[in-house]
User: Fold these one by one.
Assistant:
Number 1:
Amino acid sequence: MTQTYLVGVDGSEGSARAARFAAERAKTMPAKLVVLYVIDWSPYKIYTAQEADSRSADRKREMAEVDTRIMQPLLAGLMQEGADVSGEIRYGHPSRLLIDYAKEISADEIYVGRQGRSPLNLIFGSTTSHLVQVSPIPVMVVP
Amino acid sequence: MLRMVFALFLAFGWVPMAHAQEAESGIDAAINAIIGPVANTVAAIIFFSVPVAGVDLPLIVVWLGVAAAFFTVYFGFINLRSFGHAFQLLRGTYTDPKSAGEISHFQALATALSGTVGLGNIAGVAVAISLGGPGATVWMIVMGLLGMSSKFVECTLGVKYRIENEDGSVSGGAMRYLSRNFARRGMPGFGKFLAAFFALMIIGAAIGGGNMFQVNQAYQQVLAVTGQDASFFADKAWLFGIIVAALVAIVTIGGVKRIASVTDKLVPGMAIIYLLAGFVVLIIHYDRIPHAVSEIIGGAFSPEGVAGGFVGALIQGIRRATFSNEAGIGTAAIAHSAVKTDEPITEGIVALHEPFIDTVVICTMTALVIVVSGVYDGAGDISGVQLTSQAFGSALPWFPLVLAIAVVLFAFSTILAYSYYIVLAGNYLFGRTPRVSLIMQIIFIIFTVLGATMSLGAVVDFSDAMLFACSIPNIIGLYWFASEVKADYKSYMRRLKAGEFPRFK
């Protein structure tokens, strides 16, 4: 059975590096590569009545924006290098969703960048450190 | 359209007048003298009363009470039976994680609550107790529990008959289910009439209870903690009104949504602080609790010194409970209808929690604190938020300041929610155009200024009148559609028991 590698990306240079690294590894295995972009979101976030009414439309717009701005260019680049790759955009808590999604697609390994986009996590991304601590499958942290 | 222009003319007419009299000290009094009689006339029409046992019983109170009781019995005490299932829905047990990013049940409830939890829970309860005695508390709780059933019906319908606009946003609420469901039943004219009537009344309700009452009581509390007569704001109610109006305008007209988001985030925290402070007051006065409970229960059936006796306490309880939780009014259906679900019944069930949290929990806490602290006895000249503030202050001298912050936040979040409702009503009546929205927003903020300056009595009567008037078309619709909702409810429960809905948690 072919293996499946999951890459968590957030639009940062570090996560793009992780994706390229995973693609290289996947090619040699060979393994299937799935790229997941998580839009940080909590089901307990509070909206005003007006925001709530347009939430569904806003969600579509946000996903389309992530798709055209980040996901499609990244996938195109990886495909050019010959990777068997697909992409997915979801809403949720980044590290928890990465693990849940890994289970959903029966991924064998998770690849992430060491540093996320958030300027607060200068040394080690909080998503990454949480992921390393709780993931039931191997996590490859790409510097 | 003509009506709107007229309203705008009226509203703007006062502004130059206000400026002209700025030099005089009696600017607040002048505004009062002009609007007071108008408010009283409106209140007199809506509160048409019949004498019962020597007291005037307003028919609108009977209308609200009977509807809530009817729906409770008709749906087999759904308010109690489905209460637990609502927790499952709120936790997301049946929510597909793939739909994350859409409005969850929890978010729809939180949005609706930030619109309903307001000064009604703090000041309104004080009004109920000063007019109806401690016994009004019992009737308030009873009405809160029964009102859960009315809320279930209207929020289910709100989701079921919401429409999607061209820009992908949704619009729900009583306007939509009245017009669409009656049209479906071959009575489009009747549905349109009721919906238009509702939209007109909600404009009044937004101006009154959702705006003037909130700013009025927020001003009173800010005045109290800044030194009453010595305060900078003494005799400058209009200035306070202008400040609040300016903030509202920045959000609604200026489009600075961030202020609204921050306010709505702070409201749940303030509600918890308010409840915790209430508990502390009860603990401090624990020796007076038995006496307070006997006052409340005894006062419900044979109150002493309350105008109208038993019926008087009952009327106050129902009025203040309904004003606070808006069950049967049809407003909350707007906020609830944004939820992402294929089963409208689920949001109706979640909405059961709204009157429960609002009235049975928060209002009851206010009532207990007021009764336990004993400040309502011989309160005489103080009423509304000042009474609640004194009650808390008797045990926690620093609390009135915290209360002032809470009150301003509660008021502001409710004002913002209604500033949206008034635009929706305007859009329904006059078209979904930016100009209509702008005119509605301008009318709204003018009344924010006026609300601060008016006396509490006039504001309460006008606010109640307009808000309760919404219940006339809304409850007609609820009765008409009750059998449909019941069939949907039965179908949903059958499929739920059969395990047709996948569980994700």
Number 2:
Amino acid sequence: MTVILCQTEFSPYAEMDAYQQSMGEAAGRYGATSVFVGTMRDLNLGDAVTQMTLEHYPGMTELRLGQIVAETQARWALIDVLVIHRVGEIKPNDAIVLVAAWAMHRGAAFEACRHIIEELKHTAPFWKKESIRDGERWVENNTEG
Amino acid sequence: MTIRVRYFASLREKMGRVEDTLVYEDIATVADVWRVVSTGQPLPDHLLCAINLEYAEPLATVRDGDEVAFFPPVTGGMG
């Protein structure tokens, strides 16, 4: 299990590939990999968004993400999990979050991936502030999904 | 008793500061901490609280040396 907070732009696909290459003895054991990539939209609530700042609570963020992954691993039979989340200044089309779950079978991989992203969105201490034409505003609610 | 109190996101901007250090003897709960830093206001329902980096309820007990945090609902991820 690996959780990374990332200050700069990252490629979720390159990170996943590199992580999978480094999994060593797990290679050959997994038959299913489920991946969620969240990307910054340039439109929210009908307004063009030019930039976003992601604030977080250093220390609590890492702790909470680690707990979410550990709880998920206890519930589903997973071989490995990778979570990467951006913080700081973000531009449209940047990847914000990657969740990848490796398992023997697709059911566990799909369900665990969905569980992690939903728990992350509802309990990990991140806050988004958007830059729009008229200034800045805090995002107050999660989207329905 | 010394308590470090931290604020995040829109609450940090509303408070006009990132943190406070309280040195008081008559604080028992998270809600007591809020009353001190907000000069007597009740804790708003939508605010979330943490003690030492873990979510806590308003009536959770605080102890000397604890870090208490208040923040609005979280909005991480995307999609």
